Amino acid sequence: MEATASLVQTIRAELQAAKRILIVSHIRPDGDAVGSLVGLGLSLMAAGKQVQMVLSDGVPANFRSLAGSELVRKRALGTFDYRIVVDASDLARVGRGLEGQPVVDLNIDHHVTNELFGRRNLVLGDAAATAEILARYLPAFGLPITTQIANALLTGIVTDTIGFRTANVTPDVLRIAAGLIENGAALADVYYAALVQRSYEAARFWGEGLRRLQIEDGIVWTSLTLADRNACGYPGRDDADLINVLSAIEGAEIAVIFVEQSAERVKISWRRCGEAETDADVSAIALQFGGGGHRAAAGADVDGTLEIVQEQILEATHSFLKQARLERVIPIT
Ligand code: 5GP
Ligand code: MN
Questions:
Q1: What pLDDT, on the 0 to 100 scale, is given for residue 333?
Q2: What is the distance in A from the centroid of ligand 1 to the CA of 42?
Q3: Which atom of ligand 1 approaches the CA of 301 most closely?
Q4: Which terminus has fewer CB within 10 Å in the chain: N or C?
Q5: Mutate which of 162, 265, 269 to test ligand 1's pocket (most atoms within 8 Å of Cβ)?
Q6: What is the pTM of this model?
Q7: Which of 186, 137, 158 is nearest to 5 (CA)?
């Protein structure tokens, strides 16, 4: 998929005219949210713009080594003449980052479930990461990719592809990543910081989740409670990427993780597993529960206690998988 030449020209002209730019991304930010935000922010600053970068949950510890991440704020301050959202499929995902802003001028994203909420929408559903879209189009917008920008964008690509392991990694994705390395990005360092290194607290948090791991009829799942988080001293509201471990478990088709957010709210992540025989689109089930995402990775926030939400979601996921199995095209040999 490609953006039309006229959309690229329009965005280029609007960015060149803008003076005070606000950029925001989603709650519980991942590497693509941080990398896209910081990469675009630094690039616009290098072009002489006043830029504010906002993440309502702040920058997670494992991305704080990225140059430029120290400039990210939790709330927007002041007035802006241009507002950009990166890597968020709907406005609820942005949290409080857009509070008080009248419109979104530019929406840059790669989620198939994107609601096209911007005045301009640069949404390419087959891109592996929002950072890939930025790496591809920044030069066309007349914006630079310095070493720091290349490191931020490569962080987005490396994390959303789980280290180039997802099925949407095409030769083009690798060429774009190679281009970022030519621009000065340090692949080994980015890879280690974003995907390999874990805090001691995160490792203990994983332990709590792994103790409760269960598998039944192709679905592997576990939960992480507020009590686990407190006991381990894990500071984030996310699953510390434990879902990546679950989705590699032999014999599983779909992995699900439940992360208790409060007594009345649960964050759910779904992944299609590495060995899945169906090509079940897990974003469809996330959408049913008010969330969204990609075919192989999706999430939702659901109201209710952990126990009740877990029961509902597991039941729905089992029937969803059953249906996907019925619809699976079996090749005739
Ligand atoms: P994760 O499970 O790692 O939070 O997210 C997997 C994918 O689904 C990501 O691309 C993420 O942006 C998307 N996603 C996660 N939670 C939500 C949600 O509540 N709403 C929407 N629209 N997308 C979500
Ligand atoms: Mn992304």
A1: 62
A2: 25
A3: 19
A4: C
A5: 269
A6: 0.92
A7: 137
Q: Which amino acid is at 45?
A: M
pLDDT tens profile 260-318? 999 999 999 999 998 788 888 999 999 999 999 999 999 999 999 999 999 999 999 99
Burial letters for 46-78: b for 16+ Cβ neighbours within 10 Å, e otherwise? Answer: ebebebbbbbbbbbbebbebbebbeebeeebee
Closest CA to 155 of 95, 70, 53, 65: 65
Residue whose tokens read 């208790």: 260
Pocket of ligand 1 from Cβ distances under 6 Å: 89-90, 93, 111, 113, 269, 291-294, 297-301
Nearest to 49 by CA among 83, 6, 74: 83
Question: Which residue is associated with the tokens 């005739």?
Answer: 332
CB 26 within 8 A of CB 87: yes
Q: Which two tokens stand for residue 311?
A: 């029961």
To 5 degrees, how large is the angle CA 32–CA 2–CA 180?
45
